[in-house]
Amino acid sequence: MPLGLLHQVGHNSNWNVESFEKEGCGDGLILSPLHQAMATVVRLDAKTRAASIFDPQFYLPSSRKPKLQTYPFFPEQVDGGFQTSTFAPHAAAVAKDCIAFQVAQGFRKVVIPTRFLNQPFPDYFDQHNAFTVDAFMEHAGDRPLCLSLAVTAPMIQHAAWRQSLLNWITSFPTVDEVYLMYEHVRDYKQVQDGEFVRDCLRFFADVVNTGLALTVGYTNTEGLLYPAAGDLNVTMGSFENTRIFSVDKFVESEGERRGPKARIYLAGLMNWVQFEDAKRIRQLAPRVWQRAYMPTQWAEDALAQPVEPTFNQPALYKHYFQNMNHQIKVLRRVPVADRRNYLLERVGEALAAYRDLPAGLELEKHGRATHLHGWSAALKAF
Questions:
Q1: What's the Cα-to-Cα distance from 194 to each of 47, 190, 376, 379, rounded to whole Å?
Q2: Which end of the chain, C or N, has fewer beta carbons within 10 A?
Q3: How far lies 120's CA from each of 58, 116, 150, 152, 161, in Å?
C-alpha cells in the first residue's frame, strides 16, 4: 500500500467531498455517520464511495445524536436503546445489517466497528469480540475486513500493551487493514509529548511490518511524522474534532459553544496559527512568511478580504487540504528508510523559522513552536 492521505469527514462534509472530487486532494474519505445521515452517504458519487471507507462510529453506542439514528444498525436503535447487558442477542443482526450497508454502497473495505473502552480491563479484548468482532467475522465470510480500534495514549505508551494489541489485531485471518485512532488528552492543539509520538512511531512500524495496511485516524499535524514508520494512511480533517479523537462529540450537549478564532495552516511551521497572527508575520517578518506559507488560491482570497474569516467558512480548511496533499505527495517520493532524516530536516527548518520571528512578535500559545522540540526528539529516538 503506498503512503496515503484520507479526509476525516466531519461537520460540513461537503467541504471534504468537494476538495477530494474537484481538487484532487487526498486519496479518499473516512465517512462519518455522526455528521452524515444515511441518505447523504447514499447520494455520494459511486467513485467517491469506492475510494472511501465508512466508519460506523459505535464508539459510544448509547449516543442519541440525530444523524446516528438514521442508521437502523446503530446500537442505540436496537430494541429500544443500547444496554451492554442486553446487546449480545442483537450483535448478529447488527453485524449483518452493517455489513450489508457497506457492501451495497461499494466502499473499498468493510469496517468492523469498535467501542471506545477507556480502561484497560483484563477482558479488554473479550469485550471487543463480544460487542462486534465475533459477529462480523461470522457474517462477513471470507471478505477482507478492516478492523477499527480506538485506544488510549497510555496503551500505546506501554510496551506490553502494544504487544497485546499487535497480537490481537494479527489474530484474524480475514483482517488485512487496521483503522486505529488514539485518545491523547492534552492542553495544546498539537501533540507536545515527544515520548508519545516516539511510541506511536514504534507501534505503527510494528503493525505495518506485519503486512497489514494501517490507517491512523483523527490525526492533526503530527500525522506528517508517521510516514517515518512506513507506508500507511494518515488523515486530515477540517474542524478540530476531526483532528483530535474524543467521544465528547457523541454526547448530547446543552447550549451553543462559542466558536474559536479562525486559524490558518502554515506548512513551513508545521502548525496552525491564528489568522490575525499570521497576518502579523506576513507584515512584520516577510522573509519568515515566505518560508512558512505555502500559498493556495483559497488562502490568498482569505488574506485579501478586509474582514477576517470565521472558523466556519471553508477557505482556510481547503487551503489546509491542499497543503497536506502536497506534503504527503512529497513524502511519498522519499524512500521509507530516508523519511526520518527528511522529517528531521523539515522540523529543524520549522524551528529555525520560529526562531527568526522578531522578538516583539508574540504568538498565542497554540501557534508557538513548543510541539516541534518533542517531535524532533521523537524522530531521533525512533
A1: 39, 11, 8, 8
A2: N
A3: 18, 11, 12, 9, 9
